[in-house]
Amino acid sequence: MAFIDDKELKKLRESEEKYRKKIEQAMDAIIDVDPETGAIISVNERVSEVTGFSKKELLKKKIWQLHPPDEVEEARELFGRVRSEGVGYNRQLHFLGKHGKLIDIDISSCLIEYGSKKIIQRICRDVSQRRKLEEETKAHRKNFETILNMMPLGLAVIRVTKGKPVVTFKNNILKKMFPEGSNGNNSQEWLHSPFKDQEKQQCYISAHGAYFEERELGNHKYYLFGSSYLLDADKSWYEIRIVQDVTEQRALENDLIEAKNNLEHRVEERTRQLKQKQTQLIQAEKMASLGNLVAGVAHEMNTPLGVLAANNDIITRIVDKMHGLFHEAGILEGEDEHTQLCSLFDQAIKLNSVNKTAAKRIIAIVNSLRKFARLDEAVLAEFDVHEGIDNTLMLVYHYTKNLIEIEKQYGNVPLLRCHPNQLNQVFMNILVNGIQAIEGKGKITIKTELKNKHVIISFTDSGKGIKDADLQRIFDPGFTTKGVGVGTGLGLSIVYNIIESHGGKIEVDSKVGKGTTFRFILPVRPQKGKK
């Protein structure tokens, strides 16, 4: 048996005192435990401060009796593991203080040699304040996340780790913008740095140091990206990425740009329309004045023409009677002078016949003029289409005589309830255009028919036709193919407006060198007093 001399014993005691002094000065609670029984054999002052038990009270307890009831089994199990395996462990548990207070602790436990024996030493750190701060931080984070999720913009916090972006937070709006696994938009595309190609992208730096850029990402969706950067306490860089869907704003901006670009054209178009209306009003005024003049002339001419026609009939009867009397008296037989007198009578009879024909012709023309003007029918009235066409043909007869054949293919059509003077004007303009389109001799075919409760009136000429490029413009005011000083370019524009005002439509077929067909399709309106 070896004995320890006094010098060695003194040295051991001094070493133990230094160890105990360090234990007492430690900031953590240190507990020495008997590995066989689990009894507490030594504690420093910090254990009493944490638990509220005195050292005397603590030395009477087993180590697992410091824990709340629901952790006793776990504490016993861990104690047994350290004792049997000699392996230390770290664990987060609780102490149940003297007055029932639950204390958060981090425990580090291991098996050590102390002098000539082994003990289990526990180093316990009171982390109640830290846990409280963690809970408060967690609550604050949850509140902040709630606020960020209520934002109308997408927001993400990105940490750059080893050159790779790692998303630490995404709010709900951003998740909806770029859902995971979506086919329309790559869910990771928004994460890539949007500031690589400044030549192609609209990119700028705000006064506060944030970067903003608008990008197009899939399915013609436009997003505005904003990024700012911060450096945390660990010297790690974070990027705060804000994303706004600006597709609708871009569309509105494009609409505004287009409206701005088209504004001048629209003003010009409106100005053209106003000029067109003004021209039509002037033309209508001229036609009204012409109608008044025609009506007045027709009225003034009717009386003397009637007298001439009546007198011509009387003169004809007188000459016929004188011729008969001379024959009965035998005056016109035998001698040369008598023969000459007879010849004069024959000439007078022939001249009277010619005068009668001419007077009828003039009367017919005057009647056609009066019917063409139809100033007494400025409101809606029943109109015989065939009569209107015939009256118009009478007025243009001097253009067509011996040059243009007029073929009529009149069908069985009802009276039209319309403005007769306006339709007469349509017939006049179309016939004049057709006559002017024919160089030399030609033919104009006029056809009427009833189809699907519409009267269809067609004018087909054998003229030179209209080029395809001009067909789109023939109804524009001022447009003419007749050359400067020949046409005003108003005739077809007036025709178009009259037919449109009657609820009808116009169809035009034309081949260069073959001729042109104008087809007017007018609805049959109920006649006055009928349904």
What does this structure look like?
- With 531 residues, the protein is of the alpha+beta class.
- The protein folds into four domains: 109 residues, PAS domain (Beta-Lactamase, 2-Layer Sandwich); 107 residues, Beta-Lactamase (2-Layer Sandwich); 102 residues; 150 residues, 2-Layer Sandwich (Heat Shock Protein 90), CATH 3.30.565.
- The protein contains 13 helices and 18 strands.
- Strands 7-6-11-10-9-8 form a six-stranded antiparallel beta sheet. Strands 2-1-5-4-3 form a five-stranded antiparallel beta sheet, with helices on both faces. A five-stranded mixed beta sheet has the order 13-15-16-18-17, with helices on one face.
- Helix 9 packs across helix 11.
- The longest helix has 83 residues.
- The protein is rod-shaped and about 205 Å long.
